[in-house]
UniProtKB/TrEMBL annotation:
Domain of life: Bacteria
Molecular-function annotations in GO: transferase activity
Record protein name field: 3-deoxy-D-manno-octulosonic acid transferase
Summary of the function given for this chain in its UniProt record: Involved in lipopolysaccharide (LPS) biosynthesis. Catalyzes the transfer of 3-deoxy-D-manno-octulosonate (Kdo) residue(s) from CMP-Kdo to lipid IV(A), the tetraacyldisaccharide-1,4'-bisphosphate precursor of lipid A.
Biochemical pathway: Bacterial outer membrane biogenesis; LPS core biosynthesis
Chain ranges of the 3-deoxy-D-manno-octulosonic-acid transferase N-terminal domain: 45-225
Family annotation (Pfam families): Glycos_transf_N (PF04413)
Subcellular locations according to the entry: Cell membrane
Keywords: Cell membrane, Lipopolysaccharide biosynthesis, Membrane, Transferase
Length: 444
């Protein structure tokens, strides 16, 4: 199948960037390898960042495609896995490769990827690393998730005949402004994609302003709505329910620096009318646990820290859940979840995971990363927006004292996710038709 014409040629800035990455690759590798090693990643797997594959290319049936997905970290990789599962039902002979850059995403992928797929760490965006990667894997299609615009990788893949798509695309206003200052290079990169699927109309307009071909740009909703629910542990759920012994509970999840103070102030206010109320506080970055523990003590609250094995008792007012991999269990435990990264202008976090677990959502106003999601979710009654500790306490109190309103919010959140996940079939259809990977396709 012939490749579509690019809308713009490569620029001097692109060639300069490619030359610079060649020079800086050894230093970049030292930094990323150190970070991976700190998470227990083996030397062999660290070298995947230099394009050295640790797995063989899969054996493929005649004309069956190898479809490559790339996502930066856990959230993007989960969206990719959702698409991999859907595509595999349509393309049973296809095989899939998922690349990402973080140890946590690799651990998640090992648990959740289907048998038709495998994971590698993404090559650094330098000519030698990308060249080795592409020479080994020879992907027929490359699907990049959200905002992964690596110029050397995209250019080399396209030159090698890989058809490219950007899915779940989102760009911050800062990123768009930066690319507009380099418009000829932005046009070149946009022209490398055969298909661009955006989270909302605004992102579609932004991509068009950067030179994307209007015939290839389609708003398609947020793919995270269709991701499988986070896994939970029945054993852990049973243990925690026994420890809580019927006490009411609310969760503050993915909190960032500067937000815990408001959460703790809200909890102290709630304890006046709900003295047995328990708060599960789940920081976005568990390494901040000691700092947060000091804040809890300063607030005059009794807490237990999960990472040290402290028991949740009847005296525990705050349970500091500073561990990884247990978020699905925590969401299944509580009907009320506040999502952090939103009381400050950080961008917010994924409400779909909360709604899929059956909980209602609370958020601050700083949810710019989910601007297409929160307003309709709030309008549907599945989420409530708060601005400070006082409003947060009021919202939690309302749901604690009015169980029918809480149930209505939980039901509304579930309905919204179900409606949004229907967009997945549209996305899969566009990917199959635009990327030319429909060999041996099953009828949907």
């Amino acid at each position: 199948m012939s490749k579509p014409d690019q809308t713009a040629p490569p620029t001097l800035l692109f060639y300069s960037y490619r030359a610079l990455t060649r020079l800086l690759a050894p230093f970049a590798y030292r930094k990323v390898a150190t970070k991976l090693a700190a998470h227990g990643v083996s030397d062999r797997r660290q070298r995947e960042r230099l394009g050295h594959a640790s797995l063989p290319r899969p054996d493929l049936a005649a004309s069956a495609p190898l479809i490559w997905f790339h996502g930066a970290s856990v959230g993007e990789s989960l969206a990719a896995i959702t698409l991999i599962n859907r595509l595999h039902t349509r393309l049973p002979a296809a095989r899939f490769l998922l690349t990402s850059g973080t140890a946590t995403s690799a651990t998640m992928a090992a648990k959740r990827l289907p048998d038709c797929a495998q994971h590698q760490f993404a090559p650094l965006d330098s000519p030698s690393a990308v060249g080795r990667f592409l020479a080994h894997w020879r992907p027929d299609a490359g699907i990049f998730v959200e905002s992964e615009l690596w110029p050397v990788t995209l250019s080399a893949a396209k030159a090698g005949g890989t058809r490219l798509a950007l899915v779940n695309a989102r760009l911050s206003a800062k990123s768009v402004a930066g690319w507009r200052k380099k418009l000829p290079t932005a046009r070149y990169l946009m022209g490398l994609f055969d298909l661009l699927l955006t989270q909302n109309q605004q992102v579609a307009k932004d991509l068009l302003s950067l030179g994307a071909d209007p015939a290839r740009v389609f708003p398609s909703g947020n793919l995270k709505a269709g991701a499988a629910a986070l896994p939970d542990s029945p054993g852990l759920l049973g243990e925690m329910r026994t420890a809580l012994a019927g006490r009411p509970l609310w969760i503050a999840s993915s909190t960032h620096k500067g937000e815990e103070e408001a959460v703790l102030d809200a909890h102290k206010a709630l304890l006046q009318d709900h003295p047995d109320l328990c708060l599960f506080l789940i920081p976005r970055h568990p390494e901040r646990a000691d700092e947060i523990g000091a804040k809890i003590t300063q607030a005059g609250l009794a807490y237990a820290k999960r990472s040290t094995g402290m028991a949740l008792t009847s005296e525990t007012q705050v349970y500091l859940a500073d561990t990884l991999g247990e978020l699905g269990s925590w969401y299944a435990l509580s009907p009320i979840v506040f999502l952090g990264g939103s009381l400050r202008p950080i961008g917010g976090h994924n409400p779909f995971e909360v709604a899929q677990a059956g909980a209602a959502v609370l958020t601050g106003p700083g949810y710019s990363n989910f601007i297409e999601t929160y307003p309709p979710l709030i309008a549907a009654g599945g989420a409530t927006q708060v601005h400070d500790a006082r409003e947060l306490a009021q919202a939690v109190d309302l749901w604690l004292t009015q169980p029918e309103q809480l149930q209505n919010a939980r039901d509304a959140a579930r309905r919204y996710v179900a409606e949004q996940s229907g967009q997945l079939d549209v996305v899969v259809n566009r990917l199959i038709s635009s990327l030319g990977v429909n060999v041996l396709e099953r009828t949907p």
